[in-house]
Amino acid sequence: MTHPFFLAGSWRQSSEPLNVTCPYDNSLVGQTWLAGDVEFEEATQAAVEAAEVMRRLPAYERAAILMRAHGDLVSRRDEIGRTIAGEAGKALRDALGEADRGIQTFQVAAEEARRIGGEVIPMDLAPHGRGRVAFTRRYPIGPIAGISPFNFPFNLTAHKLAPAIAAGNPIVLKPATKTPLSALILADALDKAGLPKGALSVLPMPRQVGDRLVTDNRYKLLTFTGSSAVGWGMKARAGRKRVVLELGGNAAVIVDETADIDYAVKRIAVGGFALAGQSCISVQRVFVHQTVFDRFASQLVARLEALKVGDPMDPATDIGPMIEESEAARIESWVREAVQEGATVLTGGRRLGPALYAPTVLTNVAETSKVCAQEVFAPMVGLYRFEEFNDALARVNRSSYGLQAGLFTGDLLRTLDAMDVLEVGGVIVNDVSAWRIDHMPYGGVKDSGIGREGPRYAIEEMTEQKIIVINRELT
């Protein structure tokens, strides 16, 4: 099936076809085309021209567009789920869950479009402020450049498109070239919903063309989700534009001696292995109190060995392939290297097919090993013993990343300590680091990024705050 790209209100093709294949068996999912420099320039100029149209679009109209798109997406849920499963290799059950999340993201963004507000600020804190009243308002920032990743091709694209429109901004989006079809479904829904022409372009592009989104000064904000190295490199080249980066992580979870071990095992088996671990908040490092370590490890291994790994389109599959064969080869190499450095494989540690990697648990891992210090982005967790809770907190912080962390405990004081001490953007108590609901503020610190997503918080990034001060004595 062919899928033209969406350029400023029209569906277009180019001379460069892009075949989208399933990473499980390389079967053809669909075909689109790559946009080039000419299409980039046309989309950018259209966004510039649409900025004033979008700026003047009333909140109720922006909300109505998003809700009409939401209704269209609801009716296409199964199509969306199958598309995600095909192009990303995500297990169909999880792909349908992503479809539901992306659809809800549009609904939440529509609601937020109606309540973009400001605040009244007292001016009489000093004598020269007497007789004055002030309030703030938010205004659209202007054309936005968006770059979305392969691992959540529908929902993470929704997190860029829906808030931009809610805030009154045009946006040009580059989806991942391995998974562009989900983003084109979103473009179709918005086009049918009556979005002004020029306000949206969704263009699969070669990297050298897409890189112009970073450097072109006509864009006032760059929002990027992807790897840390690429993201920080973009920020260095972005010039004066505002930058929002949602980057990588090697997320940690602490399981103390007061935790519900059965529940912790159940959740970590999901949080570390859904989408073959290819999530920036996927559980990677698990710190378990020594008194419950052996019980926890044996239960986790048993649960993982019962999972079905295979065809993402099979409703019974729990874990599908990694995005490509080279990624499975990479984690295979990293695990082999960790074993050479002293790690022990409790389960897994091998490929089951070209892009399939068995759910893997390691222990006795050196903290300098790649599988601990870097982002594995694979179906693998490392288990680490601890005795003192404060030591576990310190070891979690011994990372260049800081996106989200999880804590399983029955101790309220430890919860409060973790909240204060952990150097992350979010602490999830009695659940895994991978837990997220889409209206919450989401983002990291350190190498994990800058800025926040979630429709309300993305809208704040995508608008400029202006203060209005009125001298009442002369009005």
Description:
- The N and C termini lie far apart (64 Å).
- The protein is of the alpha/beta class.
- The model has no long low-confidence stretch (mean pLDDT 97).
- Helices cover 39% and strands 21% of the residues.
- The chain has two domains: 5-247 and 448-468, Aldehyde Dehydrogenase, Chain A, domain 1 (3-Layer(aba) Sandwich), CATH 3.40.605; 252-437, Aldehyde Dehydrogenase, Chain A, domain 2.
- The longest helix is centred in the first third of the chain and has 22 residues, at 92-113.
What are the salient characteristics of this protein?
alpha/beta; eight-stranded mixed beta sheet; globular; Aldehyde Dehydrogenase, Chain A, domain 1; 21% strand; 16 helices; single chain; 22 strands; Aldehyde Dehydrogenase, Chain A, domain 2; 475 residues; 2 domains; seven-stranded mixed beta sheet
